[in-house]
User: Fold these one by one.
Assistant:
Number 1:
Amino acid sequence: MSKVQGTQDTFVSDLIEMLRDLTSDWDTDFAGELSGTTRLIADLAFESVDVVHLMVAIQERYGRPDVPFEDLLMVDGRYVTDLRVEQIAAFLAEHIER
């Protein structure tokens, strides 16, 4: 396993833990197990404020207020419509040294 892949896997695990904390008291229809393919909006019913809460949680967990989340959340000047956990993990693997 490459260092990047190992790092990405670690970020997936960390993100799943953070998502469990964020959604523990939510009443959602999501019955599946959180994984890398879990989508924030379609599966977990995230709203924009929830995405912001997740980004803040990521900054706090890694002590990195400088992560350029706008690069993750916007493509060609438009907001992305949904994000999978593995997409966020790949982004973090590129921008945060472990």
Number 2:
Amino acid sequence: MAADGEMDGAELRVTDAERERTVELLKAQTANGYLTLEEFSERAGQAWAATLEGELQTLVRDLPTDALAVPEGRRLASTSWTVAVMGSSSRKGRWRVAPRTNAVNVMGGCHLDLRNAEFSGDDIVINVVAVMGSVDIVVPEGIEVELSAIPIMGSKRLRVRDVPPIPSSPRVRVRALSIMGSVSVRSKPRNLGKN
């Protein structure tokens, strides 16, 4: 309590509207490249669980207040294609996923780790073609994922942990064609420097 009997800012309770505004700011800053999808997921979950104003302020303290301000050179170039022909290709760490991206694998291996990726929008579509090879996609827990695939003498596998979805998080839709190959989409917990 402040000396004059009023509560200081850190002790004020927050409304659902304030939580939603914070999540929208986090979403905008994820699109701007300041947060990875995994960082957004963690902070959005904390925002929805917050009861005090100070908790919300902590979640955005290190971010620009103007969600539209993106410094020149801050954004990574979007990646639209990942291709492996008789070899392997991998995307992990901090990289920017285009709203529509493609993974093509012919007699090889392809690995896409989205846990630290930056997203260009709220709805990401990944088109996959696996011919006598495998494509493995990793997403952070709590992200909505859809897998629609046509396996021809091949396989598809969706292993997403049954956790509550994070409100306002982007959706990842994987559309795949597998010919004598495999397509796997799985979730993993927060990446603390390990892959």
Number 3:
Amino acid sequence: MNVFDWLPIRFGSRGKALSLYKRGLARAKTHDREGAIDDYTTTIDMPGTPSDLRAMALYNRALAHAAAGDNPRGLDDLGTVLAMDDSPANVKTLAKQKLARMESRSRKSKV
């Protein structure tokens, strides 16, 4: 691949969204939850973001919200992933599992 093939990939909508998504992952790894949420939100809202990347950003934003103690927003994001028709199957499976765990914890805390 020469540089002219690489440029559209790197600076196209998928490349920009992927770069932001990866930065969000790096921020989440260092426990910068607000920074990660901001990067995931920008990725989600960016025009031209591919649906698979949007679903992954939504899922990871849900995890960041839950880690920050904002379960309602996390649940909303997981619901959005599950409602997406073009969300990858593996992301939907992870979202279903996380949603079930969060709902189970919520029920236990109410008892």
Number 4:
Amino acid sequence: MRKFLMVLAATTMAIAPLAATSANAAPKYKVEKTIQYNHGKRVSVTKAAVVKPKHNQQHRWAKGQKFDRRYATNYRVINQPQNHRLYHAPRGYQWVQSGNDAILIGITSGLIGAVIGNALR
């Protein structure tokens, strides 16, 4: 029984760091090294800061890319494309809005079929 508990404890300690690093929710860090002088001595300082995503930045969509609505600005599904002078979406596709762009995406795959820039004002 003692051997079993020792093996269990060892595998838990070995697997725990791997499970923590594989999580997608882990924040990304920007490491910055600077050299400062303190009373004539050279001191190296390392700072780590969390990189924040830029939500106000426009994303440039292209045909064949995978569409992710988290990166779309002003995301909306266009239910009546004829009101925006767009053709009807083929079966399995839908028109969505990202900023002023109209994007035709596959419903199941999420792949972009067409991008019409500045179609929506």
